[in-house]
Design brief:
The complex is a heterodimer of chains A (about 110) and B (about 425). Chain A has about 110 residues and is α+β, with helices and mostly antiparallel strands. Chain A has a four-stranded antiparallel β-sheet with strand order 1-2-4-3, covered by helices on one side. In chain A, a hairpin with a 3-residue loop joins strand 1 and strand 2. With about 425 residues, chain B is an all-alpha fold. Chain B folds into two domains: about 200 residues, no CATH class; about 180 residues, no CATH class. Helix content of chain B is about 70%, strand content about 0%. Chain B is built from 21 helices and no strands. In chain B, helix 2 crosses helix 4 and helix 18 packs antiparallel against helix 19. Chain B is globular and about 60 Å long. Chain B starts with 13 loop residues before the first helix and ends in a 5-residue tail after the last helix. Classes of the chains: A alpha+beta (about 110), B mainly alpha (about 425). At the A-B interface, helix 2, helix 3 and helix 4 of A face helix 7 and helix 9 of B.
């Protein structure tokens, strides 16, 4: 099996842990599956992340998609709460928008079907 | 919450990275041909290596001679480099780790005959699942840990060779087919705290296969073929190669000497891809440093550099691109050495040297939970690795990865039991 749905769920799982553990108490997620890609939208309300950290998130999520890393490690995504798998998320998505507006953090992640 | 450091280094094209990595097989080829002296020695050595059952521990330096062993490693290195180029993969830390591991194990266990069926099995899996081969090439590279099962069935003399060779190749195909889903699934047992995950997966597969063979009265007998002669010329070659990596690192990033300590912040748990987090310059420098430290340890305890030791040194060097750095490795090593001394083991024996070097598979435990946890992990690793080979009958080359997976899967939930909070 290729586990496409489960991979999307894992990305959401990892980010839920990141935001609730390291940042705020209120997060919205929206997942939309389209014919050739999936869009994950996240709003992290009242973020405490620094601008420098947000820049780092933007950079790491916009790293090149690496299917070989995804195929091997996707089941690690969202597995532990002591550590983050942000590099892995970067390997599993194609594009990311990361913006801070009015004190909230907005993310839009795009993952194309392979 | 360190994510990435600002990286100021010379840009490297993908071709340049491949050229940097190609220096290893080129050096092995030249060194091997020089040691062979003539073509007859080379052919006889390569034949002996390829027709050997290769069960743990079969040191190719002893089976085929030094020259042919280095040529064998060069051939496997070139083959894997070709695949990296053919599938146009981004040369990340994990691929560097896989490449160096495969090269290292070409000195003890892997040859062209026994790895090809596993690659072909992976290819068949891709055709069946309609996915691209490049997605799984990395897993297959590591998956050649089970290559000895192909050689053992083919040349282990348990069956007539007319049946044994096709049967061995068939098993290799099957392993290549099943290793992808299995390796991904097994990660959940240790949550990425064992860097040699395929070693753990291969240990499970090896245990199942060996048990099946035993139920058909096909007992796999362990081997203990080791090269124990002069190895100072190999040490010099390794030293030159590791200095080369450090120099490449310095040429790419001139601030390394003052910024190297930044790499110590990373816990090393999978996925810690240093090429992405600290850049290629720092990664190559760290690889050279870890290679030098490994080589220095072997020389310090008076060990012989033979096939298994070469495999261990190159694996540590490779994984220095994917999580290992001196700070998260030393507690595990200290724990293992301390336990070994208490138990009266000979530190200079090949078995103990490779256990020390491979124990760094548990570096993420020290990196995440601190040096005490690392020391305990090292001590547990020694206890397991010395007893676990019999379970899979020696067909899993990454025996330490199997042990490391069990230690991590056992230890991490226990550490968790003592933690408080959300």
């Amino acid at each position: 099996m290729r586990h496409e749905i489960k991979k999307i769920s894992r990305i959401v799982d990892e980010l839920t842990t990141l935001f609730l553990k390291e940042d705020t108490n209120e997060v919205d997620f929206s997942i939309k599956r389209l014919s050739d890609h999936t869009v994950i939208k996240i709003v992290d309300y009242g973020t405490h992340f620094t601008d420098e950290y947000i820049d780092q998130l933007r950079e790491i999520f916009n790293a090149q998609r690496q299917c070989e890393v995804e195929e091997y490690y996707w089941q690690l995504c969202g597995e532990v709460d002591d550590d983050q798998e942000l590099t892995l998320i970067g390997c599993m998505i194609d594009k990311a928008t990361v913006e801070k507006k009015d004190g909230d953090l907005y993310l839009e992640l795009i993952r194309y079907n392979m | 919450m360190v994510v990435v450091n600002k990286i100021h280094e010379r840009e490297l094209h993908k071709e340049d990275k491949l050229k940097i990595l190609s220096v290893f097989p080129v050096a092995f080829l030249l060194f091997g041909l020089y040691l062979c002296g003539d073509i007859t020695t080379l052919i006889a050595g390569l034949k002996a290596i390829n027709l050997s059952p290769t069960i743990l521990i079969t040191d190719f330096l002893e089976v085929g001679g030094l020259g042919p062993s280095f040529v064998n490693a060069a051939l496997i290195g070139f083959f894997n480099l070709y695949l990296l180029k053919r599938y146009q993969l981004r040369i990340n830390g994990l691929l560097i780790a896989a490449y160096m591991t495969v090269i290292g194990f070409a000195f003890f266990g892997k040859n062209i005959f026994n790895i090809l069926p596993i690659y072909t099995g992976g290819y068949l899996y891709c055709k069946y699942q309609k996915i691209q081969m490049k997605n799984i090439i990395l897993i297959i590279m590591f998956g050649t840990a089970l290559a000895p099962i192909v050689s053992e069935i083919a040349f282990g003399h348990a069956l007539n060779i007319a049946f044994s060779v096709p049967f061995g190749i068939g098993l290799g195909l099957l392993i290549g087919f099943i290793i992808v889903p299995l390796s991904s699934h097994m990660l959940k047992f240790h949550d990425g705290f064992n860097l040699y995950n395929i070693g753990f997966t291969a240990g499970i597969i090896g245990t199942v296969f060996t048990s099946m063979l035993r139920s058909f009265k096909m007992e796999i007998q362990p081997e203990h073929i080791l090269y124990l002669n002069e190895s100072s010329h190999i040490a010099i070659l390794l030293g030159v190669l590791f200095v080369y990596l450090m120099v490449i690192g310095l040429l790419l990033n001139r601030n390394i000497l003052t910024k190297y300590f930044k790499i110590f912040k990373y816990k090393g748990r999978t996925i810690t891809d240093f090429t992405q987090l600290v850049g290629y310059g720092m990664t190559f420098f760290n690889m050279g440093m870890m290679g030098m430290l490994s080589l220095g340890y072997v020389l310090l305890v008076g060990g012989v550099i033979n096939g298994p030791v070469l495999a261990a040194i190159f694996t540590v060097t490779g994984f220095a691109a994917f999580g290992k750095q001196p700070k998260n490795c030393y507690p595990v090593i200290l724990g293992l050495i301390g336990t070994a001394l208490l138990m009266g083991y000979d530190l200079s024996s090949t078995g103990l040297i490779i256990s020390v070097l491979f124990s760094t598979t548990l570096a993420p435990i020290a990196g995440t939970y601190g040096p005490i946890a690392g020391i305990i992990a090292g001590a547990l690793h020694l206890a397991l690795v010395m007893n676990i080979g019999v379970v899979h009958g020696g067909i899993n080359l990454y025996n330490n990865g199997f042990s490391g997976g069990l230690v991590a899967g056992f230890l991490v939930p226990i550490i968790d039991a003592f933690k408080k909070g959300d």
